[in-house]
Amino acid sequence: MHRRSRNLAVLAALLTGTVAQAETTAYCARVTREPLGKDGHEVVKFDADSGRVTDGSLYLSEGDRLQFIFKKQNPFRYDYRFAVTSQPLGNALALRFLAAIPGLELSERFEFPPNRKHTDGTSLRAEALPAPCTESFTKAQAEIEKKVEDLRNQSEKLTADLGYFDAAHGFLLATSGDSLEDPKVICERAERLKDWPHAPGSFKARAAAFTKEVQGFDAFIAALKDKDGKPLAPECQKALTETNAEVKKALTDVASQHEENATKVEAMLQENKTRIEQLDTLLSSVMGREDLFYETRFISARNEPTGVKVELFRRDLRMVDAAERSVAVVNMQLGTSRFSLSAGVVVSSVDSGRIIRQSAKVPEDGSQVRLVFGREEQSTLTVAPAFFFNTRLYDWSPSMVDWGIAVGVVTAPVSSALRIDYTLGTYFSFWDILNLHAGVHLGQRDALAGDFRFGEEVPAGTPDPIPTTKKWQVGFLMGFSLQIN
């Protein structure tokens, strides 16, 4: 086993006893209560673990004010960051710490033996007592039982205190996942761990104090008084001592076990000093925050269609030098923008082709061939991809049909090169997805320079490539596109 794993493994329970459950504190009740929606705001809830929207819509009305609630956080495992940005749609176009500690059984649990109860002066050795001791015995035994009950309570508290590593182990296991099953219970356990006395030497000091109390048990009996406030007769003291000898032995055994376990705890505290300090640092930095399990963000209303981007990040506190990672990016829309981008294919009446030297028969003598000016890949149509910027002018709600104007570029292949042409026209949009376009196509094409004409013979000495010039052509265009924003 790796050395670090061995060091972490010792953070297990010394005793199988558990700390008594306390009532929910006001703090834990407050921070584990899901925030209420604010009046006048649309509430959208996010799962901080996955970034999934658990309640609310991604498409809202223009001018809505938003309240975001991020839930299901595990602040004992991750450090979270939530970024919310908004902009008009027209412009818009994710602590060095301990790993989970495997449990170990390093000691056996012991049961505190019940003390002997005496309900009257005739129990046990009462018949053998001298007559003057009978009444004093009853009174003194009641005080002894009170003392034993006090020692029992001290022992139970010490037993619970010695379970510090058991509680730490269980807490780390319960918070090792991405989310928490019961944040209120986890919060209560974190509060107890934060306030749990575990300074070096404190466990041995408390065990030694308990042992001292047990060792003074005989002295306590010797100091008891009779009903008149006088010391008990020797024979009465002897009877009380003999009667409670079994209880005294049980107390001594328990004190010895406490001291043995306290020594083990102190050794583990020293061995895992750095890791315990990390746990203390985490609890101190986390506990007390009002946004421990829920965080809220607000977005003010805009009087125009708005895009909102919500980004969720988190950093693993249990990985050394862990980098912040993105959990999710969620895009929302408030209102519908009159602008959109789309891409598709168009067919245009603007021709395409490349000017070349072509072989042709001489008109006067069909058996001879000459070179003339011609076009290769001659086509009266251009088929090419196009990109459009669309502006909605009219919306036939609720039929999901829009009409507007569109400007765009056509990437037309001309003369073995890619040329950028332009288009202006109208469009119809269906379901905010499919656009049908019709309009004017304006593009530059090669034309013969000078007074040359297609079909004429190429004069001798004409350079290669053939001298050309650029001329604008205007044609009619039709096509379709799909919205991409």
Q: What can you see in these coordinates?
A:
- The structure is a single chain.
- By secondary structure, the chain is of the alpha+beta class.
- It has a domain at 339-483.
- The protein has eleven helices and 16 strands.
- The strands form four sheets. It has a six-stranded antiparallel beta barrel with strand order 9-12-13-14-15-16. It has a four-stranded mixed β-sheet with strand order 2-1-4-6, with no helix packed on it.
- A hairpin with a 4-residue loop joins strand 12 and strand 13.
- It is rod-shaped.
- The model is unreliable at 1-22 and 91-130 (pLDDT under 50).
Throw out a few tags for this protein.
single chain; 485 residues; alpha+beta; six-stranded antiparallel beta barrel; four-stranded mixed β-sheet; 11 helices; disordered N terminus
